[in-house]
Write a structure and sequence with these properties.
Length: 664
């Protein structure tokens, strides 16, 4: 039988810094099993490892598990704003964090991992965004569970979590769409009773969502309206229940089960648009109260085609429950209110839909997007807080397409931000060529007023940006509102780095206009080579420019030439020489050829500039074109230019400036 181990960092007296070695992940302090270990991050340095929330001024432990069990690691009660991460193995991280969290219990953090007896896990504790550190205790204790710091160390104030997702019900399909309802068992793992007062806006509301992981993508397939709580039983799923003696409050440590039939009861389901997830406030009576409709009305709706095993073989599905409560929010405990569980696809067909069943354990206090990092260890998962509002979680990954391009995949989940997200930007280095731009959202239904118009994309100012209408244009625009997850994707001919920043533009006005989140992005690192010579302006009014992406290290075999600012829809190719030069208007051209000596022409890579005015070529460094016909060696310097056609105003040709590269 599994039991829960809680690692809690509580504020306390400190007589000395835990260990000078604890500041170095290569010499992390070793701890085993249970115990309490004083620490102080004041004076600690920033490591190079920041899996989420700008984790900095950090210290490390190598913790050895003594049993195979679920493990909750938290910093609840620490005297500063913490960020927390855990990794497989001892020593400095060689891969992504198993889990990383910023704010879960107030300004402190909580994560859950599945530990294996005898295995070693690196635990990293630091301050949010590299801010001032502080003191605490690393308390490793057996037993407990639930949210905050666990039952033995509850969060301050009411703290509602989803303790279990025990069952799911399917309803008849309508027009190729099936509806589902998830049972949810709530637990109050805080140190104060939670309001559950019916017939006014002082009870929790419960949302349900369904997601799919497939081919490296994590997408939301469906969402429900919100079940309004009406009576709290006093049971003990998560902790020892301190019975409140009334159905109008959920006692400390108590749990309350809502069956799938209750959560799917249409008359008690209200819309999301009336709920502020950051404050827990909402209108009451709610819109649609007491109304019912066909079998899918208000329930969690999923298109049958999105579940079809014939077209989604190997896909993994997840169900998620999410509670919103005003007193939980007032205590700053909103970040752990969602839990998820895996779903299996059963019998069905495209007309009637497919039955879903639950499998495995409920992953408590984590929204379903965390499952993406479980499926793909290279995924970077970052919690991004909106000051004075709520929280987004940004997941990202980058994969090599094997053809000189990389696929970039992003999932943005709004956990409890009322201000919502209205635009999303990824930085692009100069000369990057972007293709296969994509977007995915989730459908609102049953009378929710929000638009379903897909976001548009554009490339300018050194970034690719997706956006919906502004708040001023349409208050019901298709923003990323709380409880939803949107996807953004593209391919680019630029290798990735996993510590860049993406930008989330906030939809509703009030305070800061945008926030950043750490993510995989195309590498905008130092320039490869040095530009020389001056290009003559072409029909666009500017001269074409040449640049290089990838690496100047021959061993990497990752060197791509890019020509930009060419006229649209014109052919061009690259030329190489060991010698620089300046030849004006060669062969009647309007440009300057910035090469001399023997030249090799990459005529096999002739390309059309299309609507972007760009061409690119992944260069085979093992054999430059004839008549040069040599391999590039470390220490060699080679010079490159672009030749291209133009109409200026009649048919002519031109050249880019030159690029000189010394290879390593």
């Amino acid at each position: 039988m599994n039991r829960i181990i809680t690692l809690a960092l509580a504020a306390g007296c400190l007589t000395a810094f835990a260990s000078a070695q604890a500041d170095d992940c290569n010499a992390a302090t070793g701890i085993t099993g249970t115990g309490t270990y004083a620490f102080n991050t004041s004076g600690a340095t920033d490591s190079a490892h920041s899996p989420c929330a700008g984790l900095g001024t950090d210290v490390f432990w190598n913790w050895t598990a003594t049993a195979t069990e679920n493990v909750t690691i938290s910093t609840c009660g620490a005297g500063f704003d913490t960020t927390l991460a855990a990794y497989d193995g001892a020593g400095c991280p060689s891969g992504a964090a198993i889990s990383c969290n910023d704010d879960s219990c107030g300004l402190q953090s909580s994560i859950s991992i599945s530990a294996v007896a005898g295995s070693v896990y690196l635990i990293q504790v630091g301050s949010w965004n590299g801010g001032a550190g502080g003191a605490g205790n690393l308390d490793v204790s057996a037993g407990g569970g639930g949210g905050g710091g666990g039952c033995a160390n509850p969060a301050s104030g009411p703290d509602v979590i989803v303790g279990d997702l025990p069952s799911i019900t399917k309803y008849s399909a309508v027009g190729g769409v099936s509806a589902y309802a998830l049972a949810t068992t709530s637990c109050n793992v805080g140190d104060a009773e939670l309001d559950w007062i019916s017939n006014q806006n002082l009870h929790p509301v419960i949302g349900q969502n369904i997601f799919r992981y497939e081919d490296g993508r994590f997408e939301q397939l469906g969402l429900s309206w919100l079940k309004h709580g009406f009576f709290a039983l006093q049971q003990g799923l998560c902790c020892t229940c301190q019975n409140s003696g009334t159905g109008s409050r959920l006692g400390v440590g108590c749990s309350d089960p809502y069956s799938s039939s209750l959560n799917g009861s249409q008359t008690g389901l209200g819309p999301r648009f009336e709920v502020n997830a950051a404050t827990g406030g909402y209108s009451y009576p709610f819109t649609g109260q007491g109304s019912s409709g066909n079998s899918i009305y208000k329930r969690c709706q999923v298109a049958n085609s999105d579940v079809n095993p014939a077209t989604h073989a190997g896909a993994v599905f997840y169900g998620e429950g999410h509670y919103i409560a005003h007193d939980d929010a007032a205590s700053g405990n909103q970040a752990n209110n969602a839990s998820y569980r895996r779903l299996n696809v059963g019998s069905g067909n495209l007309t009637n839909g497919w039955n879903l069943s639950l499998t495995g354990a409920t992953v408590r206090e984590e929204p379903a997007i965390r499952a993406w990092a479980t499926q793909d260890p290279t995924v970077v998962m970052t919690d991004a807080m909106v000051p004075g509002d709520g929280m987004f979680i940004v997941g990202s990954n980058a994969t090599d397409n094997g053809d000189g391009t990389w696929h970039y995949e992003y999932a943005v989940h709004n956990l409890f931000s009322d201000r919502s997200c209205g635009d999303f930007s990824v930085p692009l280095p100069a000369g990057a060529s972007v293709t296969n731009i994509g977007f995915h959202d989730v459908n609102y239904h049953s009378g929710e007023p929000f638009s379903g118009t897909d976001w548009s994309s554009s490339i300018s100012g050194g970034s690719i940006t997706w956006s919906t209408q502004t708040f001023g244009q349409n208050t019901n625009a298709n923003a990323i509102r709380w409880g939803t997850l949107y996807n953004f994707r593209f391919d680019a001919n630029v290798a990735p780095v996993n510590n860049g920043d993406v930008n989330l533009g906030l939809f509703k006005p009030g305070g800061t206009n945008s926030i950043l989140a750490e993510a995989w992005v195309p590498d905008g690192g130092g320039q490869i080579g040095t530009n020389y010579c001056t290009a003559v302006a072409n029909s666009t009014g500017v001269g074409a420019s040449i640049s290089a992406l990838g690496s100047a290290a021959v061993v990497d075999q990752n060197f791509t030439l890019v020509a930009s600012d060419m006229p649209n829809n014109q052919f061009g190719y690259f030329i190489v020489s060991a010698t620089q030069g300046l030849l004006t208007n060669p062969g009647g051209s309007q440009g300057n050829l910035c090469l001399g000596g023997q030249m090799g022409r990459f005529v096999a890579g002739v390309a059309n500039s299309g609507s972007s005015g760009q061409i690119s070529l992944a260069v085979n460094l093992n054999g430059l074109p004839g008549p040069i016909n040599v391999a590039v060696l470390p220490g060699d310097t080679w010079n490159f230019v672009t030749w291209y056609r133009d109409l200026n105003p009649s048919t002519t040709s031109n050249f880019s400036d030159g690029l000189s590269v010394t290879f390593q």
